From TrEMBL:
<protein>
    <recommendedName>
        <fullName>inositol-phosphate phosphatase</fullName>
        <ecNumber>3.1.3.25</ecNumber>
    </recommendedName>
</protein>
<dbReference type="GO" id="GO:0046872">
    <property type="term" value="F:metal ion binding"/>
</dbReference>
<feature type="binding site">
    <location>
        <position position="100"/>
    </location>
    <ligand>
        <name>Mg(2+)</name>
    </ligand>
</feature>
<dbReference type="GO" id="GO:0007165">
    <property type="term" value="P:signal transduction"/>
</dbReference>
<dbReference type="Pfam" id="PF00459">
    <property type="entry name" value="Inositol_P"/>
</dbReference>
<dbReference type="GO" id="GO:0008934">
    <property type="term" value="F:inositol monophosphate 1-phosphatase activity"/>
</dbReference>
<feature type="binding site">
    <location>
        <position position="74"/>
    </location>
    <ligand>
        <name>Mg(2+)</name>
    </ligand>
</feature>
<dbReference type="GO" id="GO:0046854">
    <property type="term" value="P:phosphatidylinositol phosphate biosynthetic process"/>
</dbReference>
<keyword id="KW-0479">Metal-binding</keyword>
<dbReference type="InterPro" id="IPR020550">
    <property type="entry name" value="Inositol_monophosphatase_CS"/>
</dbReference>
<keyword id="KW-0460">Magnesium</keyword>
<feature type="binding site">
    <location>
        <position position="222"/>
    </location>
    <ligand>
        <name>Mg(2+)</name>
    </ligand>
</feature>
<dbReference type="GO" id="GO:0006020">
    <property type="term" value="P:inositol metabolic process"/>
</dbReference>
<feature type="binding site">
    <location>
        <position position="97"/>
    </location>
    <ligand>
        <name>Mg(2+)</name>
    </ligand>
</feature>
<dbReference type="InterPro" id="IPR020583">
    <property type="entry name" value="Inositol_monoP_metal-BS"/>
</dbReference>
<dbReference type="InterPro" id="IPR000760">
    <property type="entry name" value="Inositol_monophosphatase-like"/>
</dbReference>
<keyword id="KW-0378">Hydrolase</keyword>
Length: 275
């Protein structure tokens, strides 16, 4: 069933993602009322009516496209953390972040996106990264490459000797140990900066505009789409333990995704205290 869907159903997913944004997100961009914005864990962790309604739209539409599938969405998991376990289950799972970069969305910044990934058995099979305010849609299919607005994406490799541009976790979201690990990037030849929307930072790596990301949290809705996108664009991802990032969890954090394997090894080494 899943193999047939990967052949015949992917364009329908694109249509659903675009429609969710057109119906529930874009009309509210720069139009939110104060009561439509709520803090979750703190002032940097926001949710809006657009997040909730877009996730409901995607949940209904995606499970109709692929009968027997389930959805793990950021807002549903916030309401009931046990729903996250579906990522480790046997059914095909849609991993959804309806508005990645909610803080940017709230402040009228176009740097937000909708992230959807389809996974089975802990492996991401396809992903969609859609930035409606930027009119950009990136799609990756395992073993088939990645495209941005229909054009092939290739991450390439950093030029020899160039300073590596690395987007990192915001300090507000790191433990003392993770802060110490991220300090490993403050060396000559590396220029770390706090990240914006995780999904758009992954897209920047996949298109060769950023050399790597280094993230200290492992919520699958933030990373599932992006790690496949980077991988299919020719990049690589590694945890501090030197292992590929797993959407099922239990990763040695922070981890990195980078334009090529050599850069991933270098960044992972710095995160682990290496030179």
């Amino acid at each position: 069933m899943i193999d047939d869907f990967l052949v015949h159903g992917l364009t329908h997913v694109e249509e659903v993602v675009r429609k969710a944004a057109a119906v529930e997100i874009v009309p509210r961009f720069r139009q939110l009322a104060a009561h439509e914005i709520v803090e979750k864990s703190g002032p940097h962790d926001l949710v809006t009516v657009a997040d909730r309604l877009a996730e409901e739209f995607l949940t209904t539409a995606l499970t109709e496209l692929l009968p027997g599938s389930v959805v793990v969405g950021e807002e549903a998991v916030h309401a009931d953390p046990t729903t996250y376990e579906a990522i480790r289950g046997e059914a095909p799972v849609w991993i959804v972040d309806p508005v990645d970069g909610t803080r940017q969305f709230v402040h009228g910044d176009p740097g937000f996106c909708t992230l959807v990934a389809l996974a089975l058995g802990g492996e991401v099979l396809a992903s969609w990264t859609y930035a409606p305010a930027l009119d950009e849609l990136a799609v990756a299919v395992r073993g088939q490459g990645a495209v941005l607005n229909g054009e092939p994406l290739r991450a390439g490799s950093p030029a020899a000797g160039q300073v590596l541009q690395v987007a990192t976790s915001h300090p507000d979201y790191t433990t003392p140990e993770q802060k110490q690990a991220l300090l490993g990037l403050r060396v000559e030849g590396v220029d770390p900066r706090p990240c914006g929307s995780a999904g758009l930072e992954y897209l920047a790596v996949a298109r060769g505009e950023v050399d790597a990301v280094a993230f200290s949290w492992e919520a699958a809705w933030d990373h599932a789409a992006g790690v496949l996108l980077v991988e299919e664009a020719g990049g690589a991802h590694l945890t501090r333990a030197g292992e590929p990032f797993r959407i099922t969890g239990g990763n040695a954090l922070p981890f990195t995704a980078a334009r090529d394997a050599a850069t991933a090894r270098r960044v992972a080494g710095l995160l682990s205290g290496g030179a």
